[in-house]
Specification:
Blueprint (H helix, E strand, L loop, with lengths): L4 E5 L4 H13 L4 E4 L7 H6 L8 E4 L2 E4 L1 H11 L12 H27 L2 H22 L12 H6 L3 H11 L3 H4 L1 H11 L2 H4 L5 H15 L2
Helix pairs in contact: 1-3, 4-5, 7-11
The protein binds glutathione.
Length: about 220
């Protein structure tokens, strides 16, 4: 049977970027479909009726939603292709899931406060974001990647946000390099990987986009 794989995304999505990295890491061929989030198609509500969000992966006509769930699906459906994103040891696997979930629940929300808010609220978002980044940096420890010697589930979950560091730093007036030097070294290490380099979105494009959204759309 000829495999049919369609990756539906919006260019700036850090969640979509995770899926692209996972597909590229395993060298899985796919078709790409850009969804305009400002003018959503009925196709999106067909393939993700619950959330109506991207990314969605459509594999032989069946859709898989939510980026972390998609990465696990890719890992399992193409388990014959290396690398494996999740460790085989159940405890290590639970830890990887824990940190990916932490990144999902905490990081994105705190970061939004930096560019959407001003004054005290922005300041508290900044403090919160740095607290989160330092916790994550502690988990990395002295390993080259969260996954050990190779890019793993947590690396793939976090690295798309590297494209947003410039936006956070510019709006929040702080330096991640100064605050979290090991995490910054990790991000640079990840971006040397071909799968990551070809998936990360240009930080300036992200900044311009968020600046535009703030100014015209999210009042
Ligand atoms: N938890 C979801 C988050 C997906 C998400 O928030 N996608 C955004 C783009 S970055 C979206 O589709 N937004 C459209 C909307 O909220 O209507 C995941 O991990 O896939």
């Amino acid at each position: 049977m000829v495999e049919e794989l369609v990756f539906v995304n919006f260019w700036s999505s850090p969640f979509g970027c995770r899926v692209k990295i996972a597909l590229e890491e395993k060298g899985i061929p796919y078709d790409y479909k850009e969804e305009d989030l400002f003018n959503k198609t009925s196709f999106l509500s067909e393939i993700n009726p619950v959330y109506n969000k991207v990314p969605v992966l459509v594999h032989n006509g069946k859709s898989i939603c939510e980026s972390l769930n998609i990465i696990e699906y890719i890992d399992e459906a193409w388990s014959d292709r290396s690398p494996s994103f999740l460790p085989s040891d159940p405890y290590q696997r639970s830890q990887a899931r824990f940190w990916a979930d932490f990144i999902d629940k905490e990081l994105y929300e705190a970061s939004k406060k930096i560019y959407r808010c001003k004054g005290e609220e922005q300041e508290s978002g900044k403090k919160e974001l740095l607290r989160i980044l330092k916790l994550v940096e502690g988990e990395l420890g002295n390993k080259p990647f969260f996954g050990g010697d190779n890019l793993g589930f947590v690396d793939i979950s976090l690295i798309p946000f590297y494209s947003r560091f410039y936006t956070w730093e510019t709006f929040g007036k702080f330096s991640i390099e100064e605050e979290c030097p090991n995490l910054m070294a990790w991000a640079k290490r990840c971006s040397q990987k071909e799968s990551v380099a070809k998936s990360l979105v240009d930080p300036i494009k992200i900044y311009d986009f968020i600046f535009y959204l703030n100014k015209y759309l999210t009042k």
